[in-house]
Amino acid sequence: NAGVTQTPKFRVLKTGQSMTLLCAQDMNHEYMYWYRQDPGMGLRLIHYSVGEGTTAKGEVPDGYNVSRLKKQNFLLGLESAAPSQTSVYFCASSHRVGSNQPQHFGDGTRLSIL
Amino acid sequence: AQSVAQPEDQVNVAEGNPLTVKCTYSVSGNPYLFWYVQYPNRGLQFLLKYITGDNLVKGSYGFEAEFNKSQTSFHLKKPSALVSDSALYFCAVRDTVQLSFGAGTTVTVRA
To answer: What topology is assigned to A4-102 in CATH?
Structure first.
């Protein structure tokens, strides 16, 4: 079982470059999430999706965009990367909220912006 | 808004000793609380959750957590720690769709 797969695992960008992080899940989960993890700050929610074709802002959405064209995929885009976006990015998925099922996480994408 | 706090950045214990990782919460309404563990260069792994019912919740890898409504706490415990329990632990509370995470507690178990 692959679970949640994130691509790429590492990336180094220059300020102003753009890129897309891909998240794929094979558990038929309705909900998907993008978080960033920074030292001493836990995980902060960037954007999330409650179903195909729908997205919503989380706690720290500025500078990011997302798309969920297929149920199994959730893309996170950086249009113009900034050094403040250097972080570890995690994707997660879960069944619908009402079931109180836990979120399942990928192993992260380590992104450095120079 | 719901929130959790983990008052200790680090916890150090000797192998075989009891391990406790503290978490306090602030919610309006019924709390839905979770514990996750993160090993180096890996994503978070679910350990256990409290929704309703018994105040003592049992989870994976021999961990358990005690829900205390009067103290608004949800401390993670393990009776006998292993070196392999060394990791970063996160407490979280469900806030509508989202999970709000604490800052994390690094646990080091020395042999």
So the answer is: Immunoglobulin-like (2.60.40)
Query: Which residues neighbour B15 within 8 Å (Cβ) at sequence distance 6 or greater?
Result: B81, B82, B83, B109, B110, B111
pLDDT for residue B72 is more than 90: yes
- How many Å apart are CA A20 and CA B87, to the nearest integer? 30
- Contact between B46 and A104 using a beta-carbon 8 Å cutoff: yes
Chain A, chain B: beta-carbon pairs less than 8 Å apart:
55
Taking the CB of residue B111, how many other CB atoms lie within 10 A of it?
Answer: 7
Question: Which amino acid, residue A79?
Answer: E
Strand partners, B38: B44, B88
Domains and CATH numbers, chain B: 3-110 (2.60.40.10)
Chain centre distance of CA B32: 13
Exposure string for A6-32, b = 16+ CB within 10 A, e = fewer: beeeebebeeeeeeebebbbeeebebb
Residues of A in contact with B34 (CB under 8 A): 102
Residue spans of beta strands (DSSP E) within B22-63: 24-26, 33-38, 44-50, 56-58
d(CA A7, CA A20): 9
Given a contact cutoff of 8 angstroms between Cβ atoms, the answer to whether A7 and A16 are in contact is no
pLDDT tens string A23-34? 999 999 999 999
